[in-house]
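W.,

You were right to be curious about this one. When I first looked at the sequence I had no strong expectations either way, so I just let the prediction run and decided to look at it fresh. Below is the sequence, 181 residues in total, followed by the output.
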Amino acid sequence: MAQIILITGGARSGKSRHAQALAEAQPGKRLFLATSPVIDGEMHQRIARHQADRQGQGWRTVEEELHPAAVLAGNPEAEVVLLDCLTLWVSNLLFAAEEPEYFTEAMIAELTEELLGAARQRPGVVIIVTNEVGLGIVPENPLARRYRDLIGRSNQTIAAAADRVVLVVCGIPLTIKGEKS
C-alpha cells in the first residue's frame, strides 16, 4: 500500500517545487502524472518549464486530464508518483460535465475516493499537489463558488486519507499531518 502525501498551499507558493524535491529524494522509478490542459501559449510555456525542471531526473510523464485513477492503476512499475495537480483535475471534470451546475460534491467525493483507491493499491509513494482555494474571498458567481466547494471537498477527502499533509507557504513547507520529512 502506497504512502499518500498531500501537498497544498496557495498559487505560486512553491508546492510543486517542494513536491518534486520530495519525490526525487525517494528511491525507485518515477512517474509524473500531469492533469493540466494546454489551453494557450502561456500555459504551454509553463508546462515546458516544468518539464525542463524534471529533465534528467528519471521522470516519465503521463498527461491525463480526466482519469488519473486509471493511470495510477495502469502503471504499477512506478514506485514514486507525483500527481500535479488535483486542482486542475477538478476543474477539468467540472468543465467536462454536460451540466456543470449539477456536478455535485457527492460526485467529486466519489471520484476522489476512486483516485484514493487506485493510489492505495500501489507500492511506494503517491504525492498529490493541490491548491488551497478557500482562503480568499467568496467568489462572485455560482460556477466559481461551485468550483471552490468541489476542490474543498476533494482536498478534505484526500487529506483525511493521507499519511502526511504539507502546507507550503512562501516556499516553506509546514507539515500539518503525519511525520516531517
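Here's what jumped out at me. Residues 9 and 151 are 13 Å apart (CA to CA). And, maybe more interesting for your project: The radius of gyration is 15 Å.

Coffee later to discuss?

I.
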